[in-house]
Amino acid sequence: MTITVTGFSHHTSPLALRERMSLAQEKLTDTLANFHNCMSADSGVIILATCNRFEIYVCAPDEPDVIYSQVVSFLERLHQMESSEFSSFLYHYADTDASRHLFRVASSLDSMVVGENEIMGQIQRAYDAASDVGVTNRVLGVLFQRALKCGKRVRTNTRISAGKVSVASVAVDLAASVLHDLTDKTAMIVGSGKISEQALKNLVERGIKRVMVLNRTVCRARALAESYRGEALILDALPCHLHRADIVISSTGAPEFILHASDFERAIKRRGHAPMFLIDLAVPRDIEREASKVNNVYCYDLDDLQRGAECNLRKRESEIAACEVIIDKELKSFLDWHRRLRMEPVIVHIKKHYDEIREQELHRTLKKLNGVPNEVRDEVEHLSQRIVNMLLRQPIACVKSDVAEENQDALMYLAQRMFCPQGLERQ
User: Fold this and answer.
1) The sheet that has 2-9: what strands, in order across it?
2) What dihedral angle (degrees, nearest 10) is formed by the CA atoms of 329, 331, 336, 340?
3) pLDDT tens-digit profile of 78-128?
4) N or C, which terminus of the chain has less Cβ within 10 Å?
5) Active-site residue numbers?
6) What's the predicted TM-score (pTM) here?
7) Residues of 365-377 as b/e, b for ≥16 C-beta within 10 angstroms?
8) Which of 4, 18, 19, 137 is nearest to 69 (CA)?
């Protein structure tokens, strides 16, 4: 079985493309099922879709190039785009490289903000979604479980996550660097998801006293606002309260803009042209790009935060080497397991073949010994089993032994030629 990952991230693609090819959470189940229907029945697929990456993990009995073509064709249908519009931004890794990529993603070494913890939950939810739909398989399931284990070890045994830095906290750092003292400012949080909550928490820690939380359902806004003594408002009331905000942090799942340049033109006039600081953490974006052209309105999006993340990366470079050591160890453990899994059919076939020979010869011998007591017959049968087990111990140990990946097919072929009368197809 071949393991591949095909996708794009903030490293390889512009925000505009990530917006066009974003996948709403409510569409994930159908997307998984539809893609799996294009694959063989024993294939597995998991889709990891976040603000900063879209990756399709596949485990199938096909060559990497075939899987890549299937993924690209599916993306064309899914997003109603020509492959020429996005293929140059795709990366495609197979087997060891694909597994290493996921381990590095889980360890947050591939994140916009190195050391952030959100990706662990996103990977877990991606795995759970595929499991619930029934489109993953054994190999892909173990790969994701081992990747999550690796991510946990990295965070436990290194200081890569020191300071609890996240995309939301980088956004708040950016606001503080521009506005300096936040204690007398008013913040508006649009959306009540996890990123919104992290942003609100970081703002309060920086001294913000007045906060508004807006959501499509006021009960969800109230649940978040009450934790920080904030004011809960329904999203429809946004235009009426926008002028009150010095800082606006927006992170909703809306498919279209919820804030336009005209909204800020009116708000700025009502504020007496006092500056407003906007951070758009949504994909697709919540705030119209032209809003930044309004006087005294300063607008930043996820691509702008990339620069802050690069600064954070430099601070944590000393920890990356230690993380890579852990990743290498955990990756080797998974690859060893995967290699042994490929050899299981050969081992089962060898044991079955020699057990059939044993039973034939045992039957012939017991037929000649007709009339011997049952206890003697049982002892002869146990003796035959012990002999076969002892004879096969060394060959099976050799098949299970650590060998380089490029030598594995040769070992499988040799084992089948020496110990099996019939070959096996490549597993």
Assistant:
1) 44-49, 53-60, 2-9, 91-94
2) 150
3) 999 999 999 999 999 999 999 999 999 999 999 888 888 889 999 999 999
4) C
5) 51
6) 0.66
7) eeeeeeeeeeeee
8) 4
